[in-house]
Amino acid sequence: MSVTEFDAAVTEFSTKLRAFVRRRVRDEATADDLTQETLLKVFRSRETLRDGQRLEAWLYRIARTTLVDHYRRQRPSEELPETMAAESVDEIEALRQALALSTQRFLEELPECYRVPVRLAELEGLPLAKIALRLDLSLTAVKSRVRRGRAMLKTKLQECCRLEFDRSGKLIGCERRERCGESQKRTATERA
């Protein structure tokens, strides 16, 4: 697609693009601003369009990204009240260690067919293909067992604790649930 054809196609599509943006924002002025921002991104990155036949999908993807960026910018960044001060680094580290110990304990409670692949993947850091070779299983079977084992661990942890994570996925809070003891009792009963 030549530059002239690209410019003509984008210009022709700009009305539909603006309508797409307008349906997703509160007012006309914001729709105009975001449409203009989208078009600037489109013209600046025209070299990244690999297939001229997919121009419309490419334009919508850029518009969606622009809308997501807009809504992310709208979140207020207010100061937290002093009563919600963050835990100290030592408290967070102690929390992570307690969670690691609980995870290891719950890992030992998993059936062996899930426990071994999860331990090899998570604790020893082996790639799934090497685990498959070591356990003489197919790669599909190892993927399935690791996925199911992780899900079982997650369920056990969620039964025992309410976990809080920050935006990057780091653990920032944990509250023990009353039924945590029930989970342990049930597991002990299941083994007997």
TrEMBL record:
RNA polymerase sigma-70 region domain segment(s): 11-75
Keyword list, A-Z: DNA-binding, Sigma factor, Transcription, Transcription regulation
Any Gene Ontology biological process: DNA-templated transcription initiation
Gene3D superfamilies: 1.10.1740.10, Winged helix-like DNA-binding domain superfamily/Winged helix DNA-binding domain
InterPro entries: RNA_pol_sigma-70-like, RNA_pol_sigma-70_dom, RNA_pol_sigma-Z, RNA_pol_sigma70_ECF_CS, RNA_pol_sigma70_r2, RNA_pol_sigma70_r4_t2, RNA_pol_sigma_r2, RNA_pol_sigma_r3/r4-like
Stretches assigned to the RNA polymerase sigma factor 70 region 4 type domain: 104-153
Matches recorded under SUPFAM superfamilies: Sigma2 domain of RNA polymerase sigma factors (SSF88946), Sigma3 and sigma4 domains of RNA polymerase sigma factors (SSF88659)
GO MF: DNA binding; sigma factor activity
Family per similarity comment: Belongs to the sigma-70 factor family. ECF subfamily.
Name of the protein in question: RNA polymerase sigma factor
Species, as recorded: Opitutus terrae (strain DSM 11246 / JCM 15787 / PB90-1)
